[in-house]
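Fold it.
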Amino acid sequence: MEDVDGVVLVKATLTGTNALSDSVASAVHSARRDTTGWFAVDTGAGYLALDSQIAIALGIQDSFPARSIDVAIRPIARFRIGDLAMDNVQPVVLFNAQLLSRVTDRPVLGLIGHGVIRDRALWIDYQEHLLALIPAGPPDERDDASAIGASRRLLGGTLSGLATPVRFRMPRDGKVMIEARVTPIHGGATTPWLTLALDTGASKCTLFEDSVAPLVNTVGWKPEIHGLVAPTLLESSSARLCRAKKVEVRGASGIATAPKVEVALIHNALSRELESIAQEPVHGLLGYTFLERFRVACDYPHRVLWLDPVPDFDERHAMEPAQVGIQFERVADAVHIVAVIDGSPAAQAGIRPGDVLVSIEGAAAWPLGATEIGRRLGGAPGTKVTVVTSRGTLEQTHRLKRRRLL
């Protein structure tokens, strides 16, 4: 797998249907051809989701859907990940995958959700960039102790003796719901136990401020930075980022704890969407800034999430390097600045959202991957980097001093 800022990407192959309507007869050639590309493995998604344009090319959809999220009229003939092949896959959700492609800087074709892997345990090792889909059988309705025992036997040597089992609830659409709490470093008390959705597609642990506000005051949490943008498939919204003293997940036989976790706090329609699906309040997402500290196994049939601490995890790895305060996305053949952190070196230099990043230390930005751009902008505190930005026809050169922002 590839890990792009916490988004888990794997290569998968699609085969379109041969049962084409007359209106798409011209697409027969492409529909019978395999299409291989990147998919995000997303525990927050319910089914296999596919970019609408790819769905039309494969013949499972005749035209662009009227709604932003819809369902294809035909199944995928075959879907293959590694040695795992599934035939006649449906439903296939249709959406616009451009957001994922911009965020990951990869041509992402779609999402792999619960519906595709519901009879398996999803095992992820972020450090080794390995992902396994382990056959686990039909749903198991046994009590907690029996289900946890069966899950441990299934996963065998993939778990250490320190792994914490977490029994999760799974409402409609395959969302994995767990209980967690957050302790800020300064400016507030530990939250009560909150309901979070496990989300391997989320780069940060996230709290929905509208849902959390009645339970705890997060306004004074420090340290924090403002001015970020949090993109989701429903909408993008402004966000602030805090570094929490710790995030804890309540397990069946203990608590899995991660210190110094970055937590995003946002106002977003995603919280209302999740609550309508789960039929209960959903306070946020358990994302990468927590999950990277563990080897993660989500056993869907037994409804057990295993959090196995990474030995000797380097906390410095989890901390952002000193930076200049630019959040960017690739759009076509240009690197667009979508947010500038308040009070950052970039903000003080007059760089604004909407500017285009032209070059870094003399190297053109547009051919570089997102990871490489981030690496070149970041660096040791106090060091300087020269960037060129454009606004319309005006280019400006900035000499920015990197510093830690959080």
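The CA atoms of residues 135 and 227 lie 44 Å apart.
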